[in-house]
């Protein structure tokens, strides 16, 4: 068994086209029905303002599968500690023996989450998309743009965040990467000229409304990954010409589709729901015109973790 630390993993794996292809292949396998993926195991540690999520999946035919443990303890910054952490355990799919432990402290989750956003834009946004509105100013606000630049010629970023100081700091970071960046005081202003909108917040109430959507925009919503989080108002999804998610079940429980789940737990979604992996596997395009509005809700799947963990081990073995 091999044990790899974050520094080793970060040196081997970055946000690049090879990693994007690995995660995209995981989505496609899920869409073909070639994946065994149980529901997310979630546990609250209420007295410490913490939670733990466990995700896993097996891609049939792959020699390995991963189990990821991802704790989030949100008072940690007061103690001088990161709020997010975690590791991935990689097992042989033939013997069940542990091949490796990737003590990545959440690094690989960051990478595969950013790449999933780029994959959604690759398949759903207009090919000539150049301008992105980012809602939020945290790590994913930076990494989503880094990944998007693999698939679209991004030149301009508009940012809104609840704390203007955070948005200003974000603007400095992104300008250093050669981008034109504008800070806005409202979501509506940030989104006014967007080709792509990316929501990256832990909001518990909707921040994006249908009135904020310009013609032809693509929206990637990746912040809602728990039952108490919401970023999109129902009107955004109702206005969309195509709604896509990573998995419908997760979107209805953790993501944006829970807005359409009744108090009795019944799904009452009044539009067609597409799954991203199925679209990729079939080579299907749901954008029929330049003026269409597309929305993709990403809650994070176990198959993404198995895909990026397998890719990381290949890179590490080749060093």
From TrEMBL:
GO terms for cellular component: cytoplasm. InterPro entries: NAD(P)-bd_dom_sf, ODC_Mu_crystall, ODC_N. Pfam families: OCD_Mu_crystall. It comes from the Bacteria. This is Cyclodeaminase.
């Amino acid at each position: 068994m091999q044990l790899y630390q974050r520094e080793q993993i970060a040196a081997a794996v970055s946000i690049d086209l090879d990693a994007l292809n690995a995660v995209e292949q995981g989505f496609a396998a899920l869409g073909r029905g070639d994946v065994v993926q149980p529901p997310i195991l979630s546990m609250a540690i209420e007295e410490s303002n913490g939670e733990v999520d466990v995700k896993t999946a097996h891609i049939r035919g792959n020699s390995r599968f991963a189990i990821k443990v991802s704790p989030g303890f949100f008072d940690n910054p007061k103690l001088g500690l990161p709020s997010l952490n975690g590791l991935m355990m990689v097992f042989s799919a033939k013997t069940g023996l542990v091949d490796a432990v990737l003590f990545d402290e959440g690094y690989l989750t960051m990478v595969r989450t950013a790449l999933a956003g780029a994959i959604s834009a690759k398949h759903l946004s207009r090919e000539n998309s150049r301008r992105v509105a980012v809602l939020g100013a945290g790590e994913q606000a930076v990494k989503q743009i880094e990944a998007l630049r693999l698939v679209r010629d991004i030149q301009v970023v508009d940012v809104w965040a609840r704390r203007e100081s955070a948005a200003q700091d974000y603007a400095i970071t992104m300008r250093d990467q050669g981008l034109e960046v504008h800070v806005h005081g409202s979501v509506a202003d940030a989104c006014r000229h967007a080709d792509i909108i990316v929501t990256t917040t832990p909001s518990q109430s909707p921040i994006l409304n249908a009135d904020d959507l310009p013609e032809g925009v693509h929206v990637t919503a990746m912040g809602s990954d728990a039952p108490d989080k919401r970023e999109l108002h129902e009107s955004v999804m109702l206005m969309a010409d195509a709604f896509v998610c990573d998995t419908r079940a997760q979107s209805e429980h953790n993501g944006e589709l829970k807005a359409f789940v009744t108090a009795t737990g019944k799904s009452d979604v009044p539009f067609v729901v597409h799954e991203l992996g199925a679209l990729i596997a079939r080579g299907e395009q749901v954008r029929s015109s330049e003026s269409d509005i597309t929305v993709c809700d990403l809650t994070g799947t176990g198959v993404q973790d198995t895909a990026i963990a397998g890719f990381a081990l290949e890179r590490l073995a080749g060093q």
